[in-house]
């Protein structure tokens, strides 16, 4: 075949099907990727995006279908399935959502790892360094290559990951949820880099469920839903609402703010101080009433996590008192759960579930000593199974069943387990720490709806968030936390986003800079 | 003071190094395994295998270096077994390791008894003799203290250099260190996690077996039941003490050797007053104390004890 730019794509996924148990993770997926374009692969959590990319990179073998890449001669050839080495050699570079870096090695060492014969007498750092200097300059990905990865910030680690691909002369770059861990500024600079790389002829796929970045950074959008491609069209022809609908499969109603009907005070902070260092809180006074949502706005790392720990019974205040219904709150997690406080932790993978345990076990974790689930110290498996099946249905937890290993579920589904476990106990207080962080549109709407339902039932909800849209959409009152100090909560109607944003950055309510 | 006399005798230092030699092999072996992310509690049994196989090979006429080769191969074989159980099959490294120790020990005893059913005193071989290095061995004090060791001691020291070089200077070492920290990183770069880990366990186990072989082929000239006597376990502790670094591993082994040599001499001095068991305890006690002091800030390989399965999060 003559060497032509015959319009052959660089990469072609043809009829990819992958089934895990009863779950069709990918069904007949077709996707082409051409040089110089940036394709956004959009989809909810659990839609099969990551599975598809893992097939592409050879971590999984597809049950059916072919992965084809353009050979140097211009024709498409099959990629050996299940072999990351083959994918690398074909010029596919992958930046995983969970970085694949050895933290005990430097950036440079991580990049050259596997690029030389293992049995070479020594590896040559100087040659690698020269090539990397050039790559860093041309791509704008600056990073200190001689620092151990454990000392690098998240954004820098991601740059090392991209450099890894560039160092191997990748033609195709795949990024799995690249912005999930980045600040907005870091995301912007990432997309600038990606555009630069595409302009040089690379083909780029990035996975995302954030509408704004999909519309802003891609040339083409492919939407994956339930393992199938349901839309594949140029970004210029997309519109936000239509995309969201295609992605979720039905029209999305984001929860409308409706006022609560607050009653008596329940959870009251009086002069509470706790924690140390950056996460210290000082002299916090706050009264949460039944039937209201207080939004606690603040940039992460201003003491929110300490406040959440105090409410969760994981940390004891150094001064002041926290009381619930007029009684002091015991600094003991078990007592806190029994007293009717639902805890939705910030790090749901780590603190929200026990990853190695099954979905059903996680669902009854907080209630395991209740007679409903145990008798004479023995678990009542049938009751637990029944409870799990109900919760899976009611909360639409996408998993293979009550016995699925929780760790393997997507973030949104893990959050649904946490919601089901905590909110079904009819709590008086709900502590929701960054409840929608990293979740897709559908899952976020679910979380919001559930929180509002709890509020309407009469619970007091303390919503810790840095997402202003979320705060304004849900809260009855908003308080701002900055450097461990919390201002008096104010009625949401009387606030605007700009004002709250400034307060989060340390300005006082009246507009002047705080000391 | 008799304590000072002990420290000033060349004989004490020579003994310290001699006692340290099997530990140097063992601790290096354990270090290589653990750097790749796999704990090898088979070490105690692999010591026995090395001691038995090395000795028996020489006894059957393989020659001393032939015996060393046989011992290393036997160690590597049991390493392979541990590797298959813990890496692709992902079984508990503790359970597999302890199983290997029991299995390897019994197989060695069994083989020995089968080969020599009727002897009352174990047959002896012509073991490694201390080298006479021109000039160095004749230096006053330093000569007898440091340079009148057998070839195996020098082999152990050479292994420290070799392991350091491989770990820190070669692409292979880079991959081994990476696979012990984050196997996904290795797989994402197109290398085989399984091959690297199993290879490292086999190499580490071969080193451990040399530690055992030293006992029957250099320290003594025969094989006895129970002669390993916990040396393998000491190595496991020493790796932590060494923070998984070959240089510190050498230091740890020498320190332990010095404690042990010291307590033997102390027993002779004051043994009439204090029961000898107290002295036998000293090196172990000191190693526990050293471990407590050092290990709290130890830099564990992050993936140690964690099986890796492809495509899992």
From TrEMBL, chain A:
UniProt keyword Lipoprotein present: no
InterPro entries assigned to the protein according to its UniProt record, in alphabetical order: AAA+_ATPase, ABC_carbohydrate_import_ATPase, ABC_transporter-like_ATP-bd, ABC_transporter-like_CS, P-loop_NTPase
A single MF term (Gene Ontology): ATP binding
Pfam family of the protein (one): ABC_tran
UniProt superkingdom: Bacteria
Keywords linked to the UniProt accession: ATP-binding, Nucleotide-binding, Repeat, Sugar transport, Transport
CDD domains (UniProt xref): ABC_Carb_Monos_I, ABC_Carb_Monos_II
Domain ABC transporter: 11-251, 262-508
Homology family: Belongs to the ABC transporter superfamily.
Record protein name field: Nucleoside ABC transporter ATP-binding protein
Species of origin: Pseudovibrio ascidiaceicola
TrEMBL record, chain B:
Alphabetic keyword roster: Cell membrane, Membrane, Transmembrane, Transmembrane helix
Keyword Protein biosynthesis attached: no
Pfam families with a match to the protein in the record: BPD_transp_2
Location relative to the cell: Cell membrane
InterPro entries the UniProt entry points to: ABC_transp_permease
Topology class, membrane: Multi-pass membrane protein
Predominant place of localization: membrane
Membrane-spanning intervals of the chain: 12-31, 38-58, 64-87, 146-168, 194-216, 222-242, 272-295
Full protein name: Nucleoside ABC transporter membrane protein
Organism: Pseudovibrio ascidiaceicola
């Amino acid at each position: 075949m003559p060497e032509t730019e015959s319009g052959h794509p660089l990469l072609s996924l043809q009829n990819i099907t992958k089934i895990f148990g009863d779950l069709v993770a990918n069904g007949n997926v077709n996707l082409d990727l051409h040089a110089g374009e940036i394709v956004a692969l959009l989809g909810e959590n659990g839609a099969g995006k990551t599975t598809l990319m893992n097939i592409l990179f050879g971590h999984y073998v597809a049950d059916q279908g072919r992965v084809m890449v353009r050979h140097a001669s211009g024709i498409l050839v099959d990629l050996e399935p299940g072999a990351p080495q083959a994918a690398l050699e074909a010029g596919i570079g992958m930046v995983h959502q969970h970085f694949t870096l050895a933290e005990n090695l430097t950036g440079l060492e991580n990049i050259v790892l596997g690029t030389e014969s293992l049995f070479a007498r020594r590896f040559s750092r100087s040659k690698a360094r020269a090539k990397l200097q050039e790559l860093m300059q041309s791509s704008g990905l600056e990073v200190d290559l001689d620092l151990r990865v454990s000392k690098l910030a998240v954004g820098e680690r991601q740059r090392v990951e991209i450099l890894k691909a560039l160092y191997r002369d990748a033609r195709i770059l795949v990024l799995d949820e690249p912005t999930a861990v980045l600040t907005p500024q870091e995301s912007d600079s990432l997309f600038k880099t990606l555009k630069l790389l595409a302009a040089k002829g690379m083909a780029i796929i990035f996975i995302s469920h954030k509408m704004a970045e999909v519309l802003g950074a891609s040339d083409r959008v492919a939407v994956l839903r339930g393992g199938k491609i349901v839309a594949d069209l140029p970004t210029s022809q997309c519109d936000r609402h239509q995309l969201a609908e295609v992605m979720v499969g039905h029209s999305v109603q984001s929860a409308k703010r409706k006022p609560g009907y607050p009653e008596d005070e329940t959870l009251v902070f009086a002069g509470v101080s706790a924690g140390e260092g950056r996460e210290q809180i000082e002299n916090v006074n706050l009264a949460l009433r039944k039937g209201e949502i207080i939004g606690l706005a603040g940039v992460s790392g201003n003491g929110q996590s300490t406040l959440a720990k105090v409410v969760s019974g994981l940390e004891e205040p150094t001064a002041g008192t926290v009381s619930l219904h007029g009684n002091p709150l015991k600094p003991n997690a078990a007592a806190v759960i029994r007293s009717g406080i639902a805890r939705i932790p910030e790090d749901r993978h780590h603190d929200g579930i026990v990853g190695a345990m099954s979905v059903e076990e996680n669902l009854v974790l907080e209630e395991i000593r209740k007679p409903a689930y145990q008798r004479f110290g023995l678990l009542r498996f049938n009751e637990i199974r029944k409870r799990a099946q109900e919760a899976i249905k009611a909360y639409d937890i996408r998993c293979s069943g009550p016995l699925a290993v929780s760790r393997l579920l997507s973030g949104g589904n893990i959050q649904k387990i946490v919601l089901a476990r905590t909110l079904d106990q009819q709590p008086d207080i709900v502590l929701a720490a960054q409840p929608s962080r990293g979740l897709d549109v559908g899952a976020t709407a679910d979380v919001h709806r559930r929180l509002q339902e709890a509020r309407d039932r009469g619970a007091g909800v303390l919503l810790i968030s840095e997402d202003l849209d979320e705060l304004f959409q849900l809260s009855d009152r908003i308080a701002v936390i900055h450097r461990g100090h919390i201002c008096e909560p104010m009625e949401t109607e009387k606030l605007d986003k700009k004002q709250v944003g400034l307060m989060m950055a340390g300005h006082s309510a009246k507009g002047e800079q705080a000391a | 003071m008799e304590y000072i006399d002990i420290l000033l005798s060349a004989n004490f230092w020579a003994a310290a190094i001699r006692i340290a030699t099997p530990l140097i092999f063992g601790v290096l072996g354990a270090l290589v395994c653990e750097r790749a992310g796999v704990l090898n509690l088979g070490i105690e049994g692999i010591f026995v295998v090395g001691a038995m196989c090395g000795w028996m090979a020489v006894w059957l006429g393989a020659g001393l270096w032939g015996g060393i080769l046989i011992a290393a191969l036997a160690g590597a074989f049991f390493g392979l077994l541990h590797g298959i159980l813990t890496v692709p099959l992902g079984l508990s490294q503790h359970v597999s390791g302890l199983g290997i120790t029991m299995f390897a020990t019994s197989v060695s005893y069994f083989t020995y008894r089968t080969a020599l059913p009727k002897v009352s005193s174990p047959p002896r071989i012509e073991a490694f003799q201390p080298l006479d290095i021109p000039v160095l061995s004749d230096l006053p004090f330093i000569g007898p203290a440091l340079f009148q060791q057998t070839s195996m001691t020098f082999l152990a020291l050479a292994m420290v250099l070799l392991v350091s070089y491989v770990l820190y200077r070669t692409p292979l070492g880079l991959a081994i260190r990476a696979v012990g920290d984050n196997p996904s990183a290795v797989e994402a770069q197109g290398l085989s996690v399984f091959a690297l880990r199993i290879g490292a366990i086999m190499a580490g186990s071969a080193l451990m077996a040399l530690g055992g072989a030293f006992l029957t082929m250099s320290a003594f000239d025969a094989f006895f039941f129970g002669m390993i006597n916990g040396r393998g376990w000491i190595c496991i502790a020493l790796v932590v003490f060494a923070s998984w670094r070959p240089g510190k591993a050498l230091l740890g082994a020498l320190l332990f050797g010095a404690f042990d040599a010291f307590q033997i001499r102390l027993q002779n001095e004051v043994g009439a007053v204090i029961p000898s068991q107290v002295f036998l305890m000293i090196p172990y006690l000191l190693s526990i104390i050293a471990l407590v002091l050092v290990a709290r800030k130890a830099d564990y390989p992050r993936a140690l004890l964690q099986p890796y399965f492809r495509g899992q999060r």
